[in-house]
Amino acid sequence: MTQSTPTPDTAPTVTEVDFTDRAHRPGKVLALHLNYPSRIAQRGRSPKFPGYFIKAGTSIARTGADIERPAGTELLAYEGEIALVIGTEARRVSPEDGWKHVSGITAANDWGLYDLRHADKGSNVKNKSGDGYTPLGPAVIAAEGLDPAALRVRTWVNGEIVQDDTTEDLVFPFGQLVADLSQLMTLEVGDVILTGTPAGSSVAQPGDTVEVEVDAPTAPGTPSTGRLITHVTASEHPMAPYGHGPQVDDVQREEAWGSREAAGLAPANTEAAGLAPAEAKDAPGERPAVEENGHYVPSAPQPDRTLLTDEMKRKINATAVATLTAQLQKRGIQNATIDGPRPTHPGQRVLGYAKTLRYVPKREDLFTQFGRGFNAQKRAMDSVEQDDVVVMEARGEHGTGTLGDVLAMRAKVRGANAVITDGGVRDSAAVAEVGLQVYSNAAHPAVLGRRHIPWEVGGTIACGGTTVQPGDIIVGDDDGLVVIPPGLLQEVVDDAYEQELQDAWVYEQVTAGHPVDGLFPPNAEWKAKFAEHRKSLDD
User: Fold this and answer.
1) pLDDT given at position 135
2) pLDDT of amino acid 294
3) Where residue 150 sits, what CATH number does that domain have?
4) pTM of the model
5) In sequence order, what E strands does 24-132 have?
6) Are residues 446 and 330 in the same domain?
7) At 452, which helix (H) or strand (E)?
8) Which of 159, 375, 440, 487 sits between 20 and 30 A of 107, alpha carbons compared?
């Protein structure tokens, strides 16, 4: 169903509006449950028709306002949205004419308190209509000339972007929403329709600042509503005993936070198998096993981020990748190198914890659902931690980019030490200017969606012919990249460091004129001489 409108040569007007002013307060605020494919995929529910709820006029707030999380509650969640402002009365209009009744768009934050969802039985009255739970503004972009399928909504929490999606692939276009609602009720001038939120909605904490902005990137002048700012505070007032009190379970935690992982919950398939974490059949320190067809399949381990101490880093940075690889081979691990990708910045070493990202081959229906908006690629870069090395499985596919300069910069700002992909890099010159070390197989101008769907963050992947798990230690130099299992790190590094010292000493002896026979590798006599040399280093 198309709803596009020709774009004018002049920029749409942008007008500051205070929706809390009774002269501008909407008579109705109608909100949509699900609309963005990214959010629908997250929820696991595919609506055939739009579903709505109503929010109280007293829930409307302006930019810069505070929102209180009641005492004794935990799941106050934000939802950045595009709000439609009705400009002319609409009753039984068609989807093709629905957009004509919209005078403007603005930013909205559809706050909800998941602790009270149990009290509403689907109405969302207590969960969604608290004071300050519907900030709107600060400005309205005139709808005339805008393409409703070319709008963008973004949300930031404490300055970090958490939602970023466009209206290009909405399940229910804006004209359809206006038409559908107008079949049963008259939409009056000033009424507001909240049009759904993309993936990335999650829980805010007291002290957080949440900002929402809506703009039209392709319109002349790139008109914007400006940042709609809300400050989260902790209320000293609990819910009264003569009404429903807060009630939270893991289902509400998962939906509020956006995923079980974000909520700190065990994987659902483990619980379905009736296993407590201690009963799962994984090695110590790993996440519980997954049951598939009666068999237990090991899942990726939880990273141990205490391994890379200053002393460990010093030893590793003084040791060649070739030496570390040799020590792994002595322990029977022959396939620990990531083969193929080459560094953007020769001479710049890599060391860090593996953070994994997997792409699957593009299939158009799945790309529409999972490839757009705040997809797995963006979530991976937005959740990077200090000393992470992002490792991407791209199946060795060179015919498109798996990284560009914007996400490279995001990874760098978040503290990543490197990005490794067995696929291609787009905007390669700009990526190089970021300064982050990047290993890749090729440069290619095509965007990610030509060949890939970003699919999974934090799983076990294959990159450059070897297996990589989250928390594996990645070391790289000009020779290449090696993956060190965390459980072997200490012994491998200690022995490799000693081997490096011995090799350096042997090199000095050869430089001084000694023949290599008996020296490389050293026989008993030369080993004794090295032992004396090594002792002098410790002294």
Assistant:
1) 97
2) 38
3) 3.90.850.10
4) 0.53
5) 29-32, 52-55, 60-61, 65-71, 76-77, 80-86, 102-109, 112-113
6) yes
7) strand 452-457
8) 375
Distance CA(347)–CA(84), nearest Å, equals: 54
Which pLDDT score is estimated for 302? 66
- What confidence category does residue 267 fall into, taking pLDDT thresholds of 50, 70 and 90? low
What pLDDT was estimated at residue 387? 94
- Residue 203, annotated as binding a ligand: no
- Between strands 76-77 and 160-166, the pairing is unpaired
* 257 lies in some domain: no
Q: What is the rounded average pLDDT of the residues 458-463?
A: 95
User: What is the predicted pLDDT for the residue at 9?
Assistant: 64
- Count of domains in the chain? 4
Question: Based on the domain organization, do 72 and 123 belong to the same domain?
Answer: yes
pLDDT of residue 298 exceeding 80: no
For residues 67 and 104, membership in a common domain is answered with: yes
| Res. 295 pLDDT band, cuts 50 70 90 | very low
451 a known binding residue?
no
* Percentage of the chain lying above the pLDDT 70 cut: 91
Whether 407 has a binding-site annotation, put simply, is yes
Residue for token pair 């805008």: 146
- H/E stretch holding 468 reads strand 466-468
| Exposed / middle / buried, residue 395 (Cβ in 10 Å: 0-12, 13-18, 19+) | middle
Please report whether residue 360 resides in a domain: yes
Shared domain check, 466 and 354: yes
Residues of the domain holding 186: 14-251
* The pair of three-digit structure tokens given for residue 510, joined into one six-digit string: 């050869």
Number of other CB atoms surrounding residue 483 within 10 Å? 26
207 and 242 together in one domain: yes
In this structure, the answer to whether residues 207 and 283 fall within a common structural domain is no
Token pair in block for residue 381:
């870069």
Tell me the C-alpha distance between 28 and 42, whole Å: 28
Tokens of 38: 């990214």
6 within some domain: no
- Which amino acid type is present at position 207? G
pLDDT for position 375: 87
Q: What is the pLDDT of residue 539?
A: 63
**Per the domain annotation, does 387 fall within a domain?**
yes
Based on the fold, state whether residues 510 and 377 are members of the same structural domain: no
Residue 287 counted as an annotated binding residue: no
